[in-house]
Prior knowledge:
By secondary structure, the chain is an all-alpha fold. Helices cover 87% and strands 0% of the residues. It contains 3 helices and no strands. The radius of gyration is 27 Å and the shape is flat.
Amino acid sequence: xxxxxxxxxxxxCSLMANKLTSPLTLCIAxxxxxVLMIAMSTIVFGIEITFNxxxxxxxxxxxxxxxxxxxxxxxxxDKISQKExxxxxxxxxxxxxxxxxxxxxxxxxxxxx
Length: 113
């Protein structure tokens, strides 16, 4: 029962964080969390980091950082293309509106006497 309550609370906190910050901020926070977890676990459990362990940690951190960067870049490109599509659609609507406005202005029914 407690596990379900904690999981629900974690999901609510995650949704709130997504709403309040940008995805890039969350990616950076996740990478910082990884570094802090590794550092704290070595201190708490007294684990000595050998050269191979250190290289493994570096590879994982670089890989996760690179993945975060690429995924954010792809999402940014998607947003840009969506904005361009919207602006193209709006400019088409504006042209239609200008045609309707000019038709109204030339109509004798809409002219003031």
